[in-house]
Amino acid sequence: MLVTALYRPQKVCLCPFLPVHPLHISTHLYIIQHPAEESKVLRTVPLLAACLPRDRCKVKIGRRFSEERDPELSTVCRKSGTLILYPGAEAANLEDFILDSPIYPSTIIIIDGTWSQAKDIFYKNSLFRLPKQVQLKTSISSQYVIRTQPTNRCLSTLECAAVALSILEKNSYIQETLLRPLQALCSFQLQHGAQIRLSKEHLLKNGLYPKPMPKNKRKLRKMELLMNSVKI
To answer: Which domain holds residue 56?
Structure first.
């Protein structure tokens, strides 16, 4: 038997770990999902969507977006109260930004995909450079231990949303509630044979990386940056 909401077998059902009612939030969340993520079995966006009201969490799938293709998203990106969560030199720390901003943010956009997929979506869609760019100032390590991350500080889409929404809504309970099904998912997978996935950064620093170092200079440079804990 499969549980309809998340399509998981009954014995590993995550429904008991979801909130009884969708969390009440005023912030609108837009998830821009790379098409490759849609088929991933252990993706986190369905867990996130199951915890939030449908009119507050929208998932848009694709690589390229424009005003002609998606007028709704174009309107959202042009609003002064919209933020996009993407780290970088030009990104403001979310907590600092909301303290100084004259207009309190009403919408946040998060890109769902691998780091290379997210980078491609962010830089090849001019719409996503219209909102204010923000990043999370956090030292927490990801609890999404069943999927390899580039560095120890990389968070899953659900974790990013949990931290961002708890800041915007000024309610730490939101983060705790959103992380609960993710923790259960990882626990179930580990009980059924999955292994804890250490970050590439950890593997490289400890001489445990199982693959040969790449010959491509650009990829090799990325590996060197990971070993030296430099943001890429």
So the answer is: 14-148+155-191
Distance CA 20, CA 211 (A): 44
Residue 7 lies in a domain: no
For residue 226, give the nearest of 150, 156, 154 by alpha carbon.
Answer: 150
Q: Answer yes or no: is 187 within a domain.
A: yes
Residues 28, 86, 137, 186: is their CA dihedral positive or negative? positive
pLDDT tens digits, 145-164: 666 666 566 789 999 999 99
Encoded tokens for 140 = 């927490």
CATH value at residue 34: 3.40.1280
Report d(CA 138, CA 171) in Å as an integer.
16
pLDDT in tens, 113-132: 988 999 999 999 999 999 99
